[in-house]
């Protein structure tokens, strides 16, 4: 098991280095001069040259990459061209919105998908299975930002029981901040619930056809006990895989929903940095997203080892 983890950790480090180089290269070849965008086209050449030197844009490509990578490894992500503050502080501030939003959305997805998927699998070809399938198809087909707009119209504009957008901050109290995240979390979590429902149904159906489940039934276990004690735990590996992917999507893919609800999250920061051509912020945010995805995949691999003892015995993931 230790050898497996060491091998996966080595691959993780190599992947992170390759991704960082790719991100820096792509950002470097983007059209437009950050200094000219900040100062305007009417700025004098001397002023532009001075700002480029201050920003380090006059250094060779490899020197700038190594300087940026070294700063990232030590926690120094540089200073935003637009805001004039450390990027690490900006990311940490925005994560206070994005991480609770993603966790709440994932909780909504799990709370809907696991019971519905197990229900559909245990009652295959029934009315319940048809209705669960209908919910799954509908939630997958509907974009999250459209769900967000409908939720705003119904619960904020019409009923007036939920805020239409914005975030008061955690300093304003837990409930006001939590309440501001409920509608965005539903908009984010509903499409993911549809995907997870289908995966759960398929996984449980596959396990229900295994010999050990029939043996458990033959020994006198009730259908419910055989389902929850034997079928569901053994169907968790594909479910855990999807959960890992969903959480990374909820962190990195909430740009549209955060903009619909005017939430100061990490996705909105990336969108603003792109619009303002703030290269250092764009690089750092994209690197954070990629590193988070890679680390989550590593965490899922570790979870496999604990969920399925056969993987520990075989020494592979």
UniProtKB/TrEMBL annotation:
Localization terms from the record: Cell membrane
One GO CC term, this protein: plasma membrane
GO terms of molecular function: dipeptide transmembrane transporter activity
Keyword Membrane: yes
Annotated ABC transmembrane type-1 domain residues: 95-304
Membrane topology qualifier: Multi-pass membrane protein
Keyword Transmembrane: yes
PANTHER family the UniProt entry points to: DIPEPTIDE TRANSPORT SYSTEM PERMEASE PROTEIN DPPB-RELATED (PTHR43163:SF6)
Similarity-based family: Belongs to the binding-protein-dependent transport system permease family.
Protein name in the entry: Peptide/nickel transport system permease protein
């Amino acid at each position: 098991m230790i050898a497996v983890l060491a091998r996966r950790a080595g691959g993780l480090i190599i992947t992170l280095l390759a991704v960082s180089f790719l991100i820096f290269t792509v950002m470097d070849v983007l059209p437009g001069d950050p200094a000219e965008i900040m100062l305007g086209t009417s700025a004098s050449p001397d002023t532009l040259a001075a700002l480029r030197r201050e920003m380090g844009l006059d250094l060779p490509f490899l020197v700038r990459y190594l300087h940026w990578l070294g700063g990232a490894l030590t926690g120094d992500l540089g200073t935003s061209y637009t805001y004039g503050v450390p990027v690490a502080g900006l990311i940490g501030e925005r994560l206070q919105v994005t991480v609770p939003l993603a966790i709440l959305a994932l909780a909504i997805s799990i709370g809907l998908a696991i019971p519905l998927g197990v229900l559909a699998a245990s009652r295959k070809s029934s009315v319940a299975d048809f209705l669960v399938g209908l919910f799954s198809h509908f939630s997958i087909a509907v974009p999250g930002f459209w769900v967000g707009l409908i939720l705003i119209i119904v619960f904020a504009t019409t009923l007036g029981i939920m805020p239409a957008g914005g975030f008061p901050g955690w300093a304003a109290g837990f409930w006001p901040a939590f309440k501001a995240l409920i509608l965005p979390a539903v908009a984010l979590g509903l499409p993911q619930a549809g995907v997870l429902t289908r995966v759960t149904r398929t996984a449980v159906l596959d396990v229900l056809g295994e010999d050990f489940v029939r043996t458990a039934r033959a020994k006198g276990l009730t259908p419910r006990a055989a389902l929850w004690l034997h079928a569901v735990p053994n169907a968790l590996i594909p479910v855990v895989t999807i959960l890992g992917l969903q959480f990374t999507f909820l962190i990195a893919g909430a740009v549209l929903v955060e903009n619909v609800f005017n939430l100061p999250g990490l996705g909105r920061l990336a969108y603003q940095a792109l619009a303002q051509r703030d290269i250092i912020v764009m690089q750092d945010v994209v690197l954070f997203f990629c590193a988070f995805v890679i680390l989550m995949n590593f965490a899922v691999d570790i979870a496999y080892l604990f969920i399925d003892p056969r993987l520990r015995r075989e020494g592979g993931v």
